[in-house]
Amino acid sequence: MKHRFYDLNVNGRVEEILKNAEILGWDGICLTREFNRDFREFHDEVSGLESNLDILLGARISAPIQKNARKALDLADVILVGGGDEIVNRKASECWEVDILSHPERNQSKDFMHQRNSGIDHVMARFMRERGIAIEINLSEVLNSSRILRARILGRMRQNVILARRYKTPMVLTSGTRDMWGLRAPGELMAFGRCLGMTDLEAKNAVSPTGILRKVRDRKDTNVILKGLEVIDWGGSKPEKKRMYGWY
C-alpha cells in the first residue's frame, strides 16, 4: 500500500505553503490557525482554494479544552491543543474531540534524575491511545531553540517516543513551520524521527498518520454512526446532519 504523506501542523502564507509543499512531495497539508474570532474568515479563505494537495484545516485551541474543541469542530477538520502546562496536557489527553497534543514537552518543570519530564506520563499515554490522540513531535521546537534548551527538548521528545511505543500511542512528525522556509520534505522529518529513536516504520507512520486521518474523516462522515458502526445503505431515508462530537 502506498503511503500518503501529511504535515499536520503548518502555518504561514497559504499560497506559498501549498506551492512549496507540493514541490517537496507532500500529499496533504493541515493549515493551522489559532481558534479565535478570525477563524471563520480563514476557513472561508481556505475553502475557496484549488490545489493538488489534500488540504485540511486545523484549529489550535486553548482552555477550556472540551468547550472550545466542540465549537471549533463546526469549522475545523483537525483539533490541536498547545501543550506544555501539566494541567492542559492532562485535560487534552482526556478529551475525545482532540486530535493532536502539540509540544507537550514545553514545560518549566525540571527533569528527574533518571527520567525526562516530557509532559506525558503512562496514564496520559493510555488515554491518548484510547481516544486516538497523537503526540506531536514538532521540528520547529528544535530549530528555534539552542544550547541547553535544545538538548532538554530533544531529550524530552525522545522520552515521549519511548512512551508512545510502550503504550501504542499515535505519533505525528510535523514541521510546525510559521512560513514556507520552515517546510521540510517527508524524508527529512522521517530522518529527524529516527534521530529521536523511532524505527523506520514508526517514522514513516508518523508522517503518514492513517489513524488520525481516519478519525478526522469518520467524524464528518454521515454514514458513520458510532465508532465501528457504519451505514452501508440508507434505503429510502436520508441521513440527518452529522453530530461532530459525542459519537465515539
Question: Can you tell me about this structure?
Answer:
With 248 residues, the protein is of the alpha/beta class. The protein has a single domain (6-221), classed as Alpha-Beta Barrel (TIM Barrel). The chain has helices at 14-24, 39-47, 65-72, 86-94, 122-131, 139-143, 147-167, 186-195, 200-207, 210-220; strands at 6-10, 28-34, 54-61, 78-82, 100-102, 134-138, 171-174, 224-226, 229-230. A seven-stranded parallel beta sheet has the order 1-2-3-4-5-6-7. Strands 8-9 form a two-stranded antiparallel ribbon. Helix 1 links the parallel strand 1 and strand 2 (28-34). Helix 8 packs across helix 9 (200-207). The longest helix has 21 residues, at 147-167. It is globular. The two termini are 27 Å apart.
Topology pattern, helix = H, strand = E: EHEHEHEHEHEHHEHHHEE
Low-confidence stretches: none
Largest sheet: 7 strands, parallel
CATH topology: TIM Barrel
The number of distinct β-strands equals: 9
What is the average of the pLDDT values?
A: 89
CATH-level-4 superfamily name: Metal-dependent hydrolases
Q: TL;DR of this structure?
A:
It contains 10 helices and 9 strands. By secondary structure, it is an alpha/beta fold.
Give a topology summary.
Layout: E1 6-10, H1 14-24, E2 28-34, H2 39-47, E3 54-61, H3 65-72, E4 78-82, H4 86-94, E5 100-102, H5 122-131, E6 134-138, H6 139-143, H7 147-167, E7 171-174, H8 186-195, H9 200-207, H10 210-220, E8 224-226, E9 229-230
Parallel strand pairs: 1-2, 2-3, 3-4, 4-5, 5-6, 6-7
Antiparallel strand pairs: 8-9
